[in-house]
Amino acid sequence: MLTMMSTPNHTGVKISGDYFDLDDLNQAFYKVIGKEGQFHGYEGSRMRLLGLSYEIRHAAQGDRNVEFVFNGLHEHMMKEKGFIAPDKNIYFSVEILWPELIYAAIAMKDFVSLYQKNSSKSVWDIHLPVIYRFQSLVLDCLQGHIPDNQYEIILQAFDQPVTVNNYAIQYVDLLNLKYIAMTKEEREQSLSTIAMKLAVQDKDYQAFRQQVLAAATPGKKQIHEIEVSAKYPEDFDW
After folding, report:
1. What are the sequence ranges of the domains in the chain?
2. Where are the alpha helices (DSSP H) in the chain?
3. Model confidence pLDDT, tens digit, residues 85-118
4. Which residues pair with 68 in a beta bridge?
5. Which domain of life is it from (predicted)?
């Protein structure tokens, strides 16, 4: 079963599951976000989701964390059924930064809508329930780490029809880097604020986006093609 839990220092979220859980999620990502250039204005967000999918795929391959999780098989059950088997399953996991994961959950709303328009059998689609569960798990994990009144406001914001069409994805990098630089206590206090900034695209985001657009205009680049100068630290505490 796919699960999510905040990391010890609240830097991010650990996504865990067995091989099939993570592979299903990875396949759903690939299917729903479409092919390169398929959705005009969404290439930056698609690249962002591909980055998350990359981490999930490598986790499923055992390239990130490997854990042993109790599978419910008790000694009494083995005696009763007359067999011996492991009482733990192998689970794989990977840590994702909180701002990155929240943005992914938001961006998937647009991609789900685009996917449904291009899928004549979307009601019976096997990939959409996987995406819905992914988004629900992100929100459920978020709920466990912010006050209830703030969560209700964020939930309402998530339900608003805000689009990530031509989104300045560099803003996610900005929030990621700010979040990494915080202390554990600062992260706990600012998590709801960051979630709101990603959900509603406030004036800070709009001002940032205008700066990116100004940088993109001279070379006639797409908004997602402008690189951020700041670099991620090679190592930090999750």
Report:
1. 3-225
2. 19-33, 43-60, 75-81, 98-117, 128-143, 148-158, 170-181, 184-200, 203-216
3. 787 889 999 999 999 999 999 999 999 999 998 8
4. 90
5. Bacteria
